[in-house]
């Protein structure tokens, strides 16, 4: 993901300096790898948000996975 796309995804646009943007990009890059970036979607319209959510749950289902259930039980 390019720096410009990352800033747009974060909703920052050009409101921060290039130096601050570079720092932010470096920090965020530590937390995301290529696999994670495939999970992200940038949408502009509320309907696209709803469509993305329903698309995700149509493939996955609504019930928590065994690993998610374990985490919930240990809260």
What does the overall shape look like? extended
SSE succession: HHHHH
Rounded to an integer in angstroms, the radius of gyration calculated over CA atoms is: 16 Å
- How much strand? under 5%
pLDDT < 50 stretches: none
Helical coverage, percent range: 55-70%
The CA-CA distance between the termini, in Å, is 34 Å
The biggest sheet amounts to: none
Q: Output the number of helix runs.
A: 5
What's the rounded overall pLDDT mean?
A: 76
What is the number of strand segments? 0
Helix and strand content put the structural class at mainly alpha
Tally the structural domains.
Answer: 2
Task: Walk me through this protein's architecture.
It is a single chain. With 75 residues, the protein is an all-alpha fold. The protein has two domains: 1-33, no CATH class; 43-75, no CATH class. Helix content is 67%, strand content 0%. The longest helix has 15 residues, at 46-60. The chain starts with a helix and ends with a helix. The model has no long low-confidence stretch (mean pLDDT 76).
Note the main attributes of this structure.
5 helices, 75 residues, single chain, 2 domains, 67% helix
Sequence-ordered SSE layout with sheet pairings:
Layout: H1 3-9, H2 18-31, H3 34-39, H4 46-60, H5 66-73
TL;DR?
The chain is an all-alpha fold and 75 residues long. The protein is built from five helices and no strands.
């Amino acid at each position: 993901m390019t720096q410009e796309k990352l800033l747009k995804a974060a909703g920052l646009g050009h409101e921060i300096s290039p130096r601050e943007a570079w720092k932010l990009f470096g920090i965020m890059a530590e937390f995301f790898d290529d696999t994670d970036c495939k999970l992200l979607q940038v949408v502009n319209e509320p309907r696209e948000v709803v469509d993305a959510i329903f698309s995700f749950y149509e493939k996955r289902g609504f019930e928590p996975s065994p690993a998610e259930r374990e985490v919930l039980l240990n809260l």
